[in-house]
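Q: What structure does this chain adopt?
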Amino acid sequence: MTRAALALFEEYINKNPKLPDDLYQAISAITEPVKLFHLIVGHITVKPGDRLGLLEHTELQLAYLDLCRVLAREIELLNIENKIYGEERQQIDDQQKSYFLHEQIKVIERELGKRNYDESGEYRTKVQNAGMPEAVLLVAKTEIDKLEKLPPFSPEGTVIRNYLDWLLALPWSARTDDNLDLRHARRVLERSHFGLKEPKLRVLEFLAVRQLRQVRDGKPVRGKAGARAKENDPGTVLCLVGPPGVGKTSLARAVADAMGRRFGRISLGGVRDEAEIRGHRKTYVGALPGRIVQALKKAGTRNPVILLDEIDKLASDYRGDPAAALLEVLDPEQDRAFNDHYLEVDLDLSEVLFICTANVRDAIHPTLRDRMETIELSSYTEAEKVQIAARFLVEKQRVLAGIPNVVHVAQPLLLSMIRDYTREAGVRQLERTLAQIMRKLAHAYVTKPLRAPRLVVTPADLRTYLGVRKHHLDSELPAPTPGVAIGLAWTETGGEILKVEATVMEGKGELQLTGQLGEVMQESARAAVTFVRKQREKLGLQPAFFAKHDLHIHVPEGAIPKDGPSAGITVATALYSALSGVAIRARLVMTGEITLGGGVLGVGGLKEKLLAAHRAGATAVIVPRRSAAELDDVPREVRRALTIHLVDTMEDVVALAFGAHKFPSARSKTSKRKTAK
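A:
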């Protein structure tokens, strides 16, 4: 037992730095068990209660057993303590080692005659040469003073360095000279876009105003007058609104090229966090400035063109409202002192030209929409698409496919592609279709190199490369059938053909609406039903007819939600046709809202609707007279191809839809029965 106790006590002495190393030599020489026991108990560090428990033993063997147990426990505790102290000591040693190595590097550089690295001094030099405003310069110097007082490896020092790097990366004084030559701008716009006369004209007007504000009597305005002109600059924000694929983003890029400015793009689709616009506080881990500051850094100038893409797709949740954060950016009264949460200094955005894009104007935040000037970009006509494909898209896709030969696609073949394979408002699907053809030609060229300098795509190749036709004009406008009317609707992707079916069956006078209709369209359908019920005598129906028959109105393509105030006269005409059994004229489409008294109200989006009617192969369109002013925006070739009828009442609509057909009245039917009897 004494040997076991001595062995444990020796290990205890080695683990405990508080006991002298020669203690074991003195105690191991004692041969008397009781004296040895008392000496060991007197030198171990335990609680008074544990020491008293060891000394209270009356039997020596049990006392030694208890002593061995206590020694084993204390040794285990010492092992844990030494492990903890060793890890801390290693960390401290690493820091000291790094510090000493850096000091040695400085000494070696000094001995070699090199300049000693002064981080704070270098930051001061950069800040002084950055061209910062006085307020920003004062903040930067304050941060440098803080950095000087911090240890080299302080976490706060890393935060300050990142902050100073962002301040130095921003273009406080760098700018590009505007090229306001209208001829040059017109050449750039015509070279990059076909059509879009109104948007191009608006851009040129914008540049003309800029030119007059910056030049007076043929000389640039400088000094106090220039400062006043800049101070009174309204800071117009342009918003390009139109369906996908009509060239909104590329038009904004063309504006930057025409003005000779740098271009930056910020995608706002699905942004929900306000910090995406204003940035995070710099004390947070991984904090960054907002997207506006990041776009300025990438542009490298203080007067770039920044595109805010898909501004109508902004969202909001518990993290804030990004649309409200954009007010400070787009408001000309506030953009001179934009405050990012990360920078916490005023940033002048008055020289930045912001251009926004959206698919639907009404989906933009109302307060944001109030600060913008909207430019409508409508759908392309078939003739415009043919010219765009022939002038731009064919050559672009040939280069992307790597085909060295010249590829020729005839205009009739392009028209066939547009009608049969790409039914859309823009040209995005058309470009993808041309890319598919170029890939086929590239594969054929690699498989069997063609020596002809010119590759010609034929109609037979079109069927081989693209497969069967995806769209048919005959399916867009079906053959005249009683109870079927064709209307026009506006969506964010352009105009659409709206097929309305109505049928009458025996029942209890109920009305059934199907086809995933929105609330507005359901109200239009109910108003149309009420109007038609008032026309019972003109349709030759008995007084109890509607009480004994059910009406079912259906709009096909039920997977697509449909809404909007434009289907009232279409539903009423379909009911007229179903109740009378007379089909509507072929290739006739219509749009307009109905009142209970039979009046026809005006509707919006007329240009997009008429373009959709033209694409579908319609020949005649019924339009409310109140919307006649919008016909000026419709392309001339579309107005020539369509016969446009202006109407004021449903009587005009019925007369145009059914021609010279006369509906038998209920009185005439009764008189015919009496004559027969």
